[in-house]
Amino acid sequence: MMKLRRTGEYFILALIAAFLGVFLLLPIFTVIGVGCDWKLICEVFRNPIYVQGLINSLKIAVTTTLIVFVMSLALALLYDRFEFPGKEWCGLLMLVPMILPPFVGALGFQQILGHYGILNTLLVKLGFSRVDFLGSEYKFWSVCAIEALHLYPIFYLNLVTSLGNMDPALDEAAANLGAGRWKRFVTIKLPLLKSGILAGGSIVLVWSFTELGTPLMFGYTRTTAVQILNGLTELESNPVPYALVLVMLVFSAALYAFSKLVLGRNTAASGKGTMGSRGVVLSGTARFIPPVVFGIVTFCAALPHLALMFSAFSKRYYGTVLPEGFTLEYFEEALSNSLVLPSIVNSLRYSLLAMVIATLCGLAVALASVRWKLRFSAAADVLAMLPLAVPGVVVAFGFLSMSVRYDWAAKCFNPVENPLWLLGIAYAVRRIPYVVRSVSSGLEQTPEELENAAKNFGAGPFKILAKITIPLIAANMLVGGLFAFSFSMLEVSDSLILAQKAQFYPITKALYDLSQILGAGSSIACAFGVWAMLFLAATLAAAGILLGKKIGAIFKF
Q1: CA 473, CA 480: separation in Å to the nearest integer?
Q2: From the CB of residue 548, how many other CB atoms can be counted at a distance below 10 Å?
Q3: Which residues, at least 6 apart from 312, have a Cβ–Cβ distance to it below 8 Å?
Q4: Would you give the DSSP letter of residue 85?
Q5: pLDDT tens digit sequence for 443-457
Q6: DSSP letter string over 291-327?
């Protein structure tokens, strides 16, 4: 009986490995197979336009990561060290930037930084000249700013988790021996934070290096991701984009390896001591300083969201700080637009399919590594987390290459005729890591005694799974599924690359097309973006309530 049960578990693990092999590794190797041509690679590095794109992408990644690190570290230390009014709400406040992808938030940011936008209007009122923030001189910094304001919660959540796992007795012992606050921070806290810095920093670094939507919306086209998208139209006559994708993949892997090499592995003990102390209780006016700091940062991060909402509801929003009158006209036009309603239906179909696939795969990987402890389960866990380190542009380009190069893929996953399965699986592969980490967290917190007792009474493995294990981790599965669904609804790279016909456009592709229409197109896109923002906000709020502080574990590689 035991042997039969183990055979079933290994069979499930083999199915998951086969799925990830076909729909994660094969797309990557397809790109590598075509792009691994020294003549094409040399062509990339001989072309000054491609070289400049790589340099700009690296500059964006490094600058964004440094900004995010400074912001996140300050906020995490403030949250961990002090007790203050409203502290329990700060965790939810940190999720505010994530309710809108930077791709959509760029619409709001354009209203803030435009030549007749909010910031320039304020400068004129104060007696200064207008500044072309969206011009070539400042466009780089605008891209870095909006990416940093979107990505800092990932870094922050990892740092807060690392600080929460730290033994306060180490810091107290050093203080008793006369070590100053700065010395204790450098010699004790910072080394123990290495795991959190690596987990958050590597994701932010790779994410900002491969970001497609934000540079595209700002017209900052001299980046590698945008150059890859622009090269899709000439794939048959120009195979250089394959080499460009391969170069991006190598650079992304090098960035991740470099961050891991620099930070190293955190081998110090970091478990909470039994004599752990609570944060310092602030009194007087000082107790309002932390919530004010969190409020200011959240307000800055929410500015694109507010500007997006104002643009969607305003009758006229040109050369003013606040809109001149409000209207629902753009929401009505959005609903009547031929792109909007079909794209919502399409995204619902793609995202529901992605949620089901990601939840089943994530559950199987988590069970194999945490509960069943099968041989090779650690390798499956690493493979399932690989999408966090592999650029979405690379995976999307790989799926497109598969549909061109392999007859079976062209029949089953044709991006022109019906991309349902193609986009559903592509979305799912990118979101499996969230489900794996969420379910693994639930399994680690759930004792095995009930399952062992059921085994002793003769219950089979599937009955135990259905009656005991799944009900106990249902909240974690729900959170993972919510993340998979909501982030799939607003996925950028796969949507822009794999959706070829207007009738199959998902939300983000429709948003991009609407934003390019002169006149009211931008306002209609903003109205459409408000719906997407509210939807994702509700999802993240539910996940934050269900997981609490442990929500940071979802963004760990």
Answers
A1: 11
A2: 12
A3: 330, 331, 523, 526, 527, 529, 530
A4: T
A5: 776 777 777 787 777
A6: HHHHHHHHHHHHHHHHHHHHHHHBS--SS-SS-SSB-
What beta strand segments (E) does 44-86 contain?
82-83
User: How many Cα atoms sit within 13 Å of 86 on the Cβ side?
Assistant: 13
Q: Where are the beta strands (DSSP E) in 168-284?
A: 280-281
- Residue given tokens 């009158």 in the structure block: 325
- The single residue listed with the structure tokens 């509801």 is 313
SS3 track for 390-429: CCHHHHHHHHHHHHHHCHHHHHHCCCCCCCHHHHHHHHHH
Domain that includes residue 443, residue range: 1-35+328-557
Q: Is the confidence at residue 278, as pLDDT, over 60?
A: no
Query: Alpha-carbon distance 32 to 37, whole Å?
Result: 9
Model pLDDT, residue 6: 65
Tell whether 303 and 449 lie within a shared domain.
no
Choose among 163, 194, 165: nearest CA to 260.
Answer: 194
Distance CA 161, CA 164 (A): 5
Domain for residue 274, yes or no?
no
Residue 275 domain-assigned (yes or no): no
Alpha helices in 446-520 (DSSP H): 449-456, 461-464, 470-472, 474-489, 493-498, 507-515
Is 42 in contact with 406 (CB distance < 8 Å)? no
Are 547 and 527 in the same domain? Answer: yes
The single-letter code of the amino acid at 330 is Y
Nearest to 468 by CA among 485, 451, 456: 451
Domain count, the chain: 2
- In this structure, are residues 328 and 347 in contact, taking their beta carbons and an 8 Å threshold? no
pLDDT tens digits, residue range 52-109? 989 999 999 999 999 999 988 888 888 888 887 877 777 667 777 766 666 777 777 7
Closest CA to 53 of 232, 236, 209: 209
Please report whether residue 237 resides in a domain.
yes
CATH number at residue 177: 1.10.3720.10
